[in-house]
């Protein structure tokens, strides 16, 4: 199983095009979007290429391949533009290793406020815009960072699950964080 993770697109057309280009090249089976898809949110500046209708159009072309959850900037109005469901606060993915992958944005569930997880499960979230792939207690915490508004001087990044390894990578190919399942 190969999954491609993106979070916090915030309506940026340029960021979305870059994500989709790398997603296609990755050969991943699914594009996992961890929220904040179309809206920039009141705490963020408007991205230079802010174009939510175009972002929706670009993503809708991959609607059969997308697994998405709602972020704190996503609304029912956003869902009206998208042809794939993205209003759930979380989703579960069962991994071939027997571990569970809990997908959420991070504003409701995160490393400090975890859902009921078993030892070895993975909590995957965005929201903080900071890349993470590490054990924290009995679970793995995974955050692909942000495409549009990376923080703490990190480069724009995405995540991959491939060959039982979770990694966060920049668009230049640098690995920011990586962990074996």
TrEMBL record:
CDD domains: MPP_YfcE. The keyword Hydrolase applies. Keywords: Hydrolase, Metal-binding. It holds the Pfam family Metallophos_2. Residues 1-162 form the Calcineurin-like phosphoesterase domain. InterPro entries: Calcineurin-like_PHP_lpxH, Metallo-depent_PP-like, MPP_YfcE, PdiEstase_YfcE_CS, Phosphodiesterase_MJ0936/Vps29. It is an enzyme of class 3 (hydrolase). Its cofactor is a divalent metal cation. One of its GO terms (molecular function) is hydrolase activity. The keyword Transport does not apply. It comes from the Bacteria. Belongs to the metallophosphoesterase superfamily. YfcE family. PANTHER family: VACUOLAR SORTING PROTEIN VPS29 (PTHR11124). NCBIfam families: PRK09453.1, yfcE. This is Phosphoesterase. The gene is yfcE.
């Amino acid at each position: 199983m190969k999954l491609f993770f993106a979070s916090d697109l915030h309506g940026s057309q340029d960021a979305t095009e870059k994500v989709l280009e790398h997603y296609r090249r990755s050969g991943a089976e699914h594009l996992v979007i961890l929220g904040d898809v179309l809206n920039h949110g009141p705490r963020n500046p408007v991205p230079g290429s802010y174009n939510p209708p175009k972002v929706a159009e670009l993503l809708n072309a991959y609607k059969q391949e997308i697994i998405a959850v709602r972020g704190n900037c996503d609304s029912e109005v956003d869902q009206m533009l998208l042809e794939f469901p993205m209003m759930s606060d979380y989703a579960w993915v069962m991994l071939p290793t027997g571990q569970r992958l809990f997908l959420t944005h991070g504003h409701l569930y995160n490393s400090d406020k975890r859902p009921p997880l078993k030892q070895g499960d993975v909590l995957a979230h965005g929201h903080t815009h900071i890349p993470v792939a590490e054990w924290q207690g009995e679970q793995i915490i995974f955050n692909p960072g942000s495409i549009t508004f990376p923080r703490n001087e990190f480069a724009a990044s995405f995540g991959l699950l491939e060959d039982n390894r979770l990694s966060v990578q920049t668009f230049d190919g640098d690995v920011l964080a990586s962990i074996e399942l």
